[in-house]
Backbone:
């Protein structure tokens, strides 16, 4: 390794350290600096990873799934490079490698587990060749950045073509992701949920991919899990949900998550391999996250002796159902950045039967997507419930959020400043506060709540 | 009195919160004591325009727009008769482009409905921005968000929906946005358009009511949330607020 590489690593580490002291998240900046000094640095460092490199793509569940995979590897004693904080564009990926390396330019890592933004994948893959890709789902998200979901699919396809030997582990319940994976010509492993979990009547959720990507005819669904995820087939051309290699069955959502994963791919055996999984977190979507992780690590051939233990110890990345205790109140912080994610969040809020106050923070910075019209695709009418004691709207686009609620007959208090909004509800609320935020409000709100709780800085 | 709103092809054209436009039209009628029915027409449903008072045609991806485009050719005459009879229509993004003569893309030319004298050529890059318009018809600015690859050009003497104060508009060149033709508004503005622009919504409602023979005026509503949300966008992007 040359002087340039060492300089790049040293500078990035210094910058990252300075940002930490200043209380800022400087991951992307550190990556940018390193790449500027040594444009080949990511290739040099990722080439030193001894074992497989796994990337996680998809609109929702990326960070949680990726971090679970990382934890599963670490639980088996592997040394892993991972972009935990969710900085998932080229500079964020570069930073993860740079900050894990020695200044000499040496990287000591068994594996890399990296989440990659769908639109950035084709910029990352020339520098880092993944062996496996987990594709969680494709929903509408940040239309102003990606244009339309078709554009996102094209960008992902270009990236997949750059890594022809890569195996894709895909959510079979999503027709868009499945189509993309199956069409790509890569080796494909599938996971999904074959049994019906929800029985809903008046369901008017906006769904992507209602039409067959192969022939354009309307898909027929036996049932939906949520959004467009479900059991589908095309009566016209025969495209259908692929057979599922890792199938979650006997699902229970009562007091945490519990289910069995059946490995249907193990054909020919009398007894299909099964594994019982339990986790203390909430939210149906977390079944997909855990299932994706399990399917991925099994496909990669990792032992899973410590998988249960890992799940028990796993703490979601900040702002994913993160609990704070502030005085006598409990505060649950959750990221909600697109309609599918927000609808799932609403389900998870409403699963809690006790009275609660709600704060919704909506920003429209570049990383959030400057177009907030998606707020109108979220089923906020479900908040019209007496157990929701109050709703406060906050953030740069609190006006839009208040208006959105007005048109489903829900009154909201307006407080643009997040800290003021939280402090007020801690004082006069019912002691059970939910804070739902989109992306750029996450870090600052997390930090704020941590301070209010009295956590030491950097305790995580 | 009852108005019927027809939402055309929400199964294909449902980008950018079109649901908000429907909800806004509906609630502003309900709050004033009118009856309202919303009919969703899926791509295989027959559309009888004689029952409809307001038609909404939303935006979709290019691929889905192509499917809708073929369908619209079949109902072109009925749609045109409805428009020429003063039928109220709001067409957003892809729906707006389809009102014109054609939409030319690298993948082929989409034949439009020829309802308004305009045409669209695909360009690069996409025009993506918050947007603020001014039109003397309305007491205060029109605000929204635009995201389109198409560059739309209006024919000679065709009235735009507004003059662009901030953002790109039809083609990023002539500072005009959208089209107004009879009781039709075509526009790239979503966000969605109507909730933050209750003046536009009420104008459309009144036109539809008048066509049904209603002679009164619209009872004013408490619009402070709408007005403040509108003023915020004007203040932040166009530097001042007229509202």
Residues:
């Amino acid at each position: 390794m040359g002087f340039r590489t060492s300089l790049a690593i040293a500078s990035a580490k210094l910058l990252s350290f300075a940002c930490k002291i200043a209380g800022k998240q400087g991951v992307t900046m550190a990556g940018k600096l390193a790449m500027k000094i040594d444009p080949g640095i990511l290739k040099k460092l990722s080439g030193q990873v001894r074992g497989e490199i796994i990337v996680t793509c998809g609109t929702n569940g990326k960070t949680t799934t990726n971090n679970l995979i990382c934890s599963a590897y670490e639980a088996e004693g592997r040394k892993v490079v991972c972009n935990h904080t969710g900085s998932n564009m080229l500079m964020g990926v570069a930073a993860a490698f740079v900050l894990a390396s020695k200044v000499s330019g040496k990287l000591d890592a068994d594996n890399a587990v990296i989440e990659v933004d769908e639109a950035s994948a084709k910029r990352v893959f020339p520098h880092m060749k993944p062996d496996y890709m987990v594709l969680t789902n494709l929903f509408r998200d940040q239309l102003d950045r990606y244009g339309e979901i078709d554009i996102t699919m094209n960008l992902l396809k270009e990236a997949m073509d750059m890594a022809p030997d890569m195996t894709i582990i895909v959510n079979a319940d999503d027709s868009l992701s499945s189509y993309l994976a199956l069409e790509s010509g890569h080796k494909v492993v599938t996971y999904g949920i074959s049994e019906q979990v929800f029985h809903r009547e008046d369901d008017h959720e906006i769904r992507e991919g209602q039409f067959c990507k192969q022939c354009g005819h309307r898909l027929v669904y036996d049932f939906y899990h949520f959004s467009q995820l479900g059991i589908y087939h095309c009566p016209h051309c025969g495209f259908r949900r692929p057979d599922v290699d890792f199938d979650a069955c006997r699902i229970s959502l009562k007091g945490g998550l519990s289910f069995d994963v059946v490995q249907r791919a193990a054909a020919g055996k009398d007894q299909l391999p099964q594994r019982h999984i339990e986790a203390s977190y909430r939210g149906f979507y977390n079944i997909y996250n855990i299932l994706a992780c399990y399917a991925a690590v099994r496909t990669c051939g990792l032992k899973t002796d410590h998988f249960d233990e890992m799940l028990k110890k796993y703490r979601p990345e900040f702002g994913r159902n993160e609990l704070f205790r502030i005085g006598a109140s409990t505060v649950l912080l959750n990221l909600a950045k697109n309609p599918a994610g927000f609808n799932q969040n609403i389900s998870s809020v409403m699963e809690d039967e006790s009275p609660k106050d709600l704060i919704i923070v909506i920003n429209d910075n570049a990383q959030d997507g400057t177009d907030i019209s998606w707020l109108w695709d979220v089923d906020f009418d479900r908040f019209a419930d007496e157990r929701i004691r109050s709703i406060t709207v906050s953030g740069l686009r609190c006006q839009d959020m208040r208006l959105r609620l007005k048109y489903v007959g829900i009154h909201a208090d307006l407080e643009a400043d997040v800290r003021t909004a939280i402090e007020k509800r801690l004082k006069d609320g019912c002691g059970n506060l939910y804070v739902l935020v989109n992306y750029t409000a996450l870090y600052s709100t997390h930090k704020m709540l941590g301070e209010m709780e009295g956590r030491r800085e950097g305790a995580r | 009195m009852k108005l019927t709103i027809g939402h055309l092809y929400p199964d294909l054209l449902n980008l950018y919160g079109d649901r908000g436009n429907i909800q806004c039209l509906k609630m502003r009628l309900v709050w004033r004591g009118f009856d309202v029915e919303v009919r969703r027409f899926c791509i295989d449903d027959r559309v009888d325009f004689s029952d409809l008072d307001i038609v909404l045609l939303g935006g979709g991806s290019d691929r889905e727009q192509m499917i809708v485009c073929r369908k619209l050719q079949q109902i072109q005459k009925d749609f045109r008769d409805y428009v020429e009879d003063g039928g109220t229509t709001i067409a957003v993004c892809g729906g707006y482009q389809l009102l014109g003569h054609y939409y030319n893309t690298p993948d082929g030319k989409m034949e439009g409905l020829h309802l308004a004298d305009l045409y669209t050529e695909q360009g690069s890059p996409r025009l993506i921005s918050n947007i603020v318009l001014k039109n003397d018809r309305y007491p205060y600015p029109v605000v929204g968000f635009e995201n389109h690859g198409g560059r739309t050009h209006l024919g000679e003497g065709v009235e735009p929906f507004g003059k662009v104060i901030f953002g790109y508009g039809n083609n990023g060149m002539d500072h005009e946005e959208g089209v107004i033709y009879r009781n039709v508004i075509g526009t790239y503005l979503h966000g969605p358009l109507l909730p933050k622009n209750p003046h536009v919504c009420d104008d459309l409602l009144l036109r539809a009511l008048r066509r049904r023979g209603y002679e009164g005026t619209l009872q004013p509503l408490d619009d402070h949330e709408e007005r403040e949300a509108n003023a915020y966008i004007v203040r932040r992007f166009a530097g001042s607020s007229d509202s």
Summary: Helices of chain B lie at 18-30, 62-74, 76-84, 94-99, 198-211, 224-238. The two ends of chain B are 31 Å apart (CA to CA). The domain at 2-238 of chain B is CATH 3.40.50.880 (Rossmann fold).
